[in-house]
Amino acid sequence: MRLGIFAIALWLAIGLDRGLGPLLRLGDGSVEPSFVLPLIVFVALYAPARTAMAGAAAAGLIVDLLSPVTLPAGGTAVIPGPNALGLVLAVRLVLALRGQVFLNSPLTLVVLTPLAGTAWQITRAGIFAMREAYEPIGTAVLSELGSGLLSSLLSAGSAFVLWFPLMWCVRWFAFDAPHVSRWASAR
Amino acid sequence: MASKGLITANRLLSLTILACIVGSFAPTRFLEPADRVARVAERLAAPIGAVVGLVGRWLGPGDPAEAVDPTDARILDLERLVRLQDLRIEELLAEIESYERTARAGLDRVRLLRGRVFADSLDPRGSVISVRRGSADGVTLGSVAVSGQSLIGRVTALDPRFCRITPIGDRNAAPIEVIAYPEDAPETGVRFDLTPESGGMLRGPGRYVTSGPELEPALVPIGTEVFLSDPAMSPHWGLKVGRVVETSRDPDSPLRQVIAVQPDVDPKLVASVILRIPEDDPPQPAVVEPTR
């Protein structure tokens, strides 16, 4: 996989998350579709396993860095890891399933995105729940898990929207995983 | 990437995951280096977020900061000073010592600086917003962000080029003291200590203060506006905090009223804010500096 293309796609996905998030949000604002998640799932469908996991770790770290949390004592902090580990586990789930799905169908991305998002959010919530035991920062774990799962569900919509541009430029990614036939990535 | 030797792709991935595990569970006091990296990441991610945000705001406009015109700013500031005067009268009636504090607050000079919101938390559950004004522009940790005369939040982290603002409704925002002026106590007002709760609301009990032979403090009806009166934020007294949306009685002290306040401004929708920066210089009229 070409890392430069992946970096540009990730940068655009982060821009979409940030720029369109307020427009697409639901309820009190804590539920928004993610554009980063479908990209990671798309890469996990086509790239070699190790590359997909590295991409997920990098994307997750960037999500962590761009999501500062407030502290009870005042100030903010960045916790690098919860989203990265969550996305790595989400990619593991997709890697386990990708041999059994149709690679060239948008439905695949639409179905796998919420599934992967569920793994991501459960991991993230678990890490923050464990942190609360020794360094409380006021995380409402169950409420955040609930809104995270709803966000994952909403991401099915962004996955459908992203499928077409991603398939259009799939050749640029130069995926070279052995399970990807020339038919699977040809559009 | 080397496939053989000391550094291999597998080892690099393993090390990254190990670093993520350590970072996930490390106490926040050890995470200062991550914050520095995050500030670089903020700058790299800001341009594309701003470009897409422009499209997003065209489709569903964000809330621009009000009072960007210097004349309007002056009028609104005078209105704030009127409310500040009301506070002064109340303080003088209560106790002589508070006069000095009130007078000092009235003489505090604040500089107004407009700044664009260039990022909010990528995680939709986070509420921190980043504004393109930093310590190089004179922003300090005592500064607050407002839209018009409505308080949005406090500056809680500073970088030379930008600052992070914790909204008043954030779960970790500090409790604040506010004052409301119900119709049956328009002169004295009723003070409340508000603490953030989920959903960006603030809730808290009133202080047990009565005037004259009254035994029960004045009650604040739903819809009343509440204003900042926190001693720790004296330069910003009189700013509007929000509106009472719910009232109840304190179960431990039935004479005390508990109110829930909805802040006026939704921090996730603001496109720009005005930073109020306290200064120690002699009093000058407040002016709004142009947008950068």
Q: Would you give an account of this structure?
A:
The complex is a heterodimer of chains A (187) and B (292). By secondary structure, chain A is mainly alpha-helical. Helices cover 68% and strands 2% of the residues of chain A. Chain A has a two-stranded antiparallel ribbon with strand order 1-2. With 292 residues, chain B is α+β, with helices and mostly antiparallel strands. Chain B contains 4 helices and 13 strands. In chain B, 39% of the residues are buried. About 2% of the residues of chain B have low confidence. Chains A and B meet through helix 1, helix 3, strand 1, strand 2 and helix 4 of A and helix 1 and helix 2 of B.
Largest sheet descriptor of chain B: 6 strands, antiparallel, barrel
Shape assignment of chain B: globular
The average pLDDT value of chain A, as a whole number, equals 87
Got a strand count of chain B?
13
Q: Quote the distance from N terminus to C terminus of chain B.
A: 42 Å
List the helices and strands and how they pair.
The complex is a heterodimer of chains A (187) and B (292).
Chain A: H1 3-24, H2 36-46, H3 49-65, E1 69-70, E2 76-77, H4 82-97, H5 106-134, H6 141-168, H7 170-173
Antiparallel strand pairs in A: 1-2
Chain B: H1 9-25, H2 32-59, H3 70-94, H4 97-107, E1 109-120, E2 129-131, E3 144-147, E4 150-158, E5 163-167, E6 176-180, E7 190-196, E8 202-205, E9 225-228, E10 240-250, E11 253-263, E12 272-279, E13 288-289
Parallel strand pairs in B: 1-13
Antiparallel strand pairs in B: 1-2, 1-12, 2-5, 3-4, 3-12, 4-5, 6-7, 6-9, 7-8, 8-11, 9-10, 10-11
